[in-house]
Design goal:
heterotrimer, A mainly alpha (about 270), B mainly alpha (about 240), C alpha+beta (about 160), A: about 270 residues, mainly alpha, Cytochrome Bc1 Complex, Chain C, 2 domains, about 0% strand, globular, C: about 160 residues, alpha+beta, Rieske Iron-sulfur Protein, six-stranded antiparallel sheet, four-stranded antiparallel sheet, 1 helix
Chain lengths: ~270, ~240, ~160
């Protein structure tokens, strides 16, 4: 503990984490404010929203599954060739030869299934809690697009193993598109890069699954989170009152401490 | 007022010191007044620690699941032979079940598009819908209107012999009119009589989705025939 | 002064409008061009797909009253008792699964969504919206049967030998 303290208070650690140890409420707020990855959160949250039954943590779970999917997906890409005889061979390779390949594929597959379910449940939760009411209407719409993107990601990923299951599920799905009046045939042709599901289709699904749709869903997630804050997750900036001493960095925050305010008020009385 | 007075933030935990808005809200108008300021806690550590724990728990569950159950992998894709039955992933089996009843343009294009559009317009439809419950006001008129709507809505399903759809409608409809039959006897009745129309529609959607997916996963065998999973097994 | 100003205002406004119109027009044109270019790029010109016209052997390879499934070109070659030939697509008109010939029931059944067809390819049950298409069949000069999947023919249009 002594060494930990020494390191955390040392010059190098302070250059990385300017906040220092989160010993006071003020420093705890800086943990959030000064961190790129955490500052999507407000500094304070309503206690009621932390209760399990108020969200069931379904949104957080969806995001967690997304992270797992991105990481395991990148792992799998190291061994996968999106071409017709190789794709299936790589599946067998992952399953029987590559160390831990089977575990990673299983993780990716099951997380994808779980994500579809959890995202759907998240949508139901939001609906039955009426959490889409103004000003959050548009965030609900983004949520619907996120749900659709999740389904599309799952669907495009379904073809990649190039087994019978994959081939016929995608075959049926793309023939459904053909039923769209006027543009149906064209959409299918563009998506498959041909009239039949072959090399071109596999490559196109691969690009959609690994590049285009992840980019789209990442952006949508970003907007979704940002809108939570902007639509009332954070009440107002002036609520961020720190305890105790003035601070150079908190100077932005009007530079007044709680004690001073309370003293002033008492003096007026 | 003293000009030298410092700028100060209003901080108070005492409700007597902070202004409280009072509003008269007529029935059938929207409420935009917060009842009370919610108690707040620091995001770090209260929320962050929960998120971290949740993610760890999720990872543990997923890893254990993946260690014990293998992802399916069938033989290499063969365009010359469709497996019998060939099923889509479970979340599309509801759609595949619909395809069994309706022409592809309806089941594959029209219905999914309608569902997505319906989901998108939900928040714009009416702000006030949960203020009034189903059975308020002119009950007789409402009952007839509802019944006619339900019948009209289900005619296409009956024509196409899509039994799961109209059976679900009948179930939801009976729950809707249940409070009319047994008026306010117990807590459950009072509770469902308070549900709004939107809740009922969503419940119908949820029930239909679940039923169709369950049928697709467990009750469909070769040539998409009806099977009993405990006799014929799961395909 | 006032007069000049008014003139200037008018001319400036006119010019500004002109440039705005030009700018938005150019932008719209460039966007359309980009979209068309993308669309063209994504539409392959050469497809490495199985040929639509192919030989399926000599007539005497098919016994009378037989139904033969040829997997690669996805067709059924049917020779009736009377000796005439016709070729049926085995791609289900519903959603593209491969249908199977069930010899004992004398039906063609789709495994995916339960469509059923008779030996002529007509729908007898299930969700299929159209009958199975018949492909043109003819005899080449050196005595081989040839199927052309590009040409769809009528039910009555059979190859008599």
């Amino acid at each position: 503990m002594k060494y930990y303290d020494k390191i955390m208070k040392g010059r190098i650690a302070r250059s990385i984490f300017r906040t220092g140890l989160p010993t006071s409420n003020y420093r705890k707020s800086l943990v959030i404010l000064n961190n790129l990855f955490l500052h999507i959160h407000p500094v304070k949250v309503k206690k009621s929203t932390l209760k399990f039954t108020s969200t069931f943590y379904l949104g957080a779970l969806s995001f967690g599954l997304f992270i797992i999917l991105v990481v395991t997906g990148i792992y799998l890409m190291f061994y996968y060739h999106p071409s017709v005889p190789l794709a299936y061979r790589d599946m067998k390779d992952l399953e029987f030869a590559v160390s831990n390949g089977k575990l990673l594929r299983n993780l990716h597959r099951w997380s994808a299934h779980a994500m579809v379910l959890i995202v759907f449940l998240h949508m139901l939760r939001v609906f039955f809690h009426r959490a889409f009411r103004p000003p959050k209407e548009f965030n609900w719409v983004i949520g619907v697009f996120l749900f659709v993107s999740t389904l599309l990601l799952s669907y495009t990923g379904y073809l990649l193993p190039w087994d019978q299951l994959a081939y016929w599920a995608v075959s049926v799905g793309t023939n459904m598109m053909k039923a769209t009046p006027i543009i149906g045939d064209d959409i299918r042709f563009l998506l498959l890069g041909g009239n039949v599901i072959g090399e071109n289709a596999l490559l196109r699904f691969y690009v959609l699954h690994c590049v285009i749709l992840p980019l789209v869903i990442t952006m949508l997630i970003g907007v979704h989170f940002w809108r939570i804050r902007k639509d009332g997750g954070l009440s107002s900036g002036s609520k961020q009152v720190a305890d105790g001493k003035r601070d150079m960095i908190l100077g932005k925050n009007l530079g007044v401490s709680t004690e001073e305010v309370l003293n002033d008020r008492d003096a007026e009385k | 007022m003293d000009n030298n007075k410092k700028i100060s933030i209003e901080v108070s935990d005492d409700l007597r010191d902070t202004p409280i808005r009072v509003a008269y809200v007529k029935s059938h108008s929207s409420i935009a007044v917060e009842r009370q300021r919610d108690e707040e806690v620091m995001t770090f550590p209260h929320l962050i620690i929960r998120e971290a724990l949740l993610f760890q728990l999720l990872l543990i569950v997923m890893v254990i699941w993946s260690l014990f159950i293998d992802a399916p992998l069938e033989g290499i894709a063969n365009p010359e032979f469709s497996p019998n039955p060939s099923k889509a992933p479970w979340y599309f089996l509801g759609l595949q079940e619909l395809l069994h009843f309706f022409p592809p343009i309806v089941a594959g294009v029209l219905l999914p598009a309608l569902v997505i559009i319906a989901l998108i317009v939900i928040p714009y439809f009416s702000i006030n819908w949960d203020r009034s419950s189903m059975w308020e006001g002119n009950i007789r008129k409402k009952f007839f209107r509802l019944s006619i709507c339900v019948v009209l809505f289900n005619i296409p399903f009956v024509i196409y012999k899509a039994a799961p759809l109209y059976v679900c409608s009948i179930i939801i409809y009976s729950f809707m009119i249940l409070p009319l039959v047994f008026r306010g006897k117990n807590g459950f009745m009072r509770r469902i009589s308070r549900l709004g129309l939107a809740d009922w529609i969503m419940s119908w959607f949820l029930l239909v989705t679940t039923v169709l997916i369950l049928i697709g996963v467990f009750f469909r065998g070769p040539e998409w025939r009806w099977i009993w999973p405990w006799i014929d097994g799961i395909y | 002064m006032e007069n000049r100003n008014a003139q200037k205002d008018d001319s400036v406004y006119g010019r500004r409008q002109f440039f705005v119109a030009m700018g938005s027009g150019a932008l719209a044109l460039a966007t359309t061009g980009g979209l068309v270019l993308t669309g063209n790029f994504l539409r392959p010109n050469v497809l490495f797909e199985p040929p639509a016209k192919f030989l399926v052997g000599k007539p005497n390879q098919y016994p009378l009253d037989s139904v033969v499934y040829l997997a690669k070109p996805k067709i059924l070659v049917i020779r009736e008792k009377e000796g005439y030939f016709y070729a049926l697509s085995t791609v289900c008109t519903h959603l593209g699964c491969i249908v199977n010939w069930k010899a004992q029931e004398e039906i063609i059944a789709c495994p995916c969504h339960g469509s059923r067809f008779n030996k002529l390819g007509e729908v007898t049950g299930g969700p299929a919206p159209k009958p199975l298409p018949h492909f043109a069949m003819n005899l080449t000069v050196d005595g081989y049967l040839e199927v052309d999947k590009n040409v769809l023919v009528d039910l009555s249009d059979v190859l008599k030998i």
